[in-house]
Amino acid sequence: MNILIKLNNRLLERALRELLAAEPEGYQVAISSETAERDAFIPEFTITDSYSLRKCGSSPDAVSKTVLLDCGLGEEEIASLLISNKVDGILAPSTDMPLLKKALHAMSEGQVWIDNRKIKVLIQHAECTRFPNPEEGFSRKEREIIVLVSQGLLNREIAARLCISEQTVKTHISRIFRKAQVNRRSQLVPLALKISMPSTT
Questions:
Q1: Which domains does the chain have, with CATH numbers?
Q2: Which end of the chain is more exposed for a tag (fewer CB within 10 A), N or C?
Q3: How far apart are CA 64 and CA 62, in angstroms?
Q4: How far apart are alpha carbons 163 and 87 in whole angstroms?
């Protein structure tokens, strides 16, 4: 697995590279600031921080998944980064190596990785104005699927949870993508946050 580290803190970049390179999984790790190393390196994951993400943006290609390292970000800033960038996961500062490897594995299978505690707080702070009103634009079943997708469930897991076929789930997700004008599961997170928000009426 190829991992690119793009952080504002050079010391943290090198420390994270050493930790990942020492793992028995054989991670290939590069640092973005070392351009000679970066030129021939095609990452599957880019671990970045908010400063680097805002400065350079997330990778536009479909291959590299963007992992945001949360170094004390506020909920509003995280919600804003989720909405404005292609973020596939958020790692908390307390993430240890086994949890980091579990997160990378989950994201490599197409799941979104966000700490459950952070999700609960983000629900109240997300800015989701670019999506249509979920009550008007999506059916009850589509809203359920959007939330389950944002929790990182695979199609077969969603099918089992909702007692429908996997093909039906795929059909719903295709329709959801068209309505929301997105093409990645991770882009449904802000919409799921909006759906999950308690009504203010």
A1: 2-125 (3.40.50.2300), 134-196 (1.10.10.10)
A2: C
A3: 6
A4: 30
pTM here is 0.60
Query: At a CB cut-off of 8 Å and minimum separation 6, what does 131 contact?
Result: 137, 180, 190, 191, 194
Q: Which of 147, 135, 148 is nearest to 199 (CA)?
A: 135
Distance of CA 141 to CAs 56, 110, 133, 166, Å?
37, 21, 15, 14
C-alpha pair distances (Å), 21 with each of 5, 42, 48, 88, 90: 12, 16, 17, 22, 21
Identify residue 82 by its one-letter amino acid code.
L
Structure tokens at 7: 């952080």
Task: Using the structure block, give the residue that is written with the tokens 């949890």.
Answer: 99
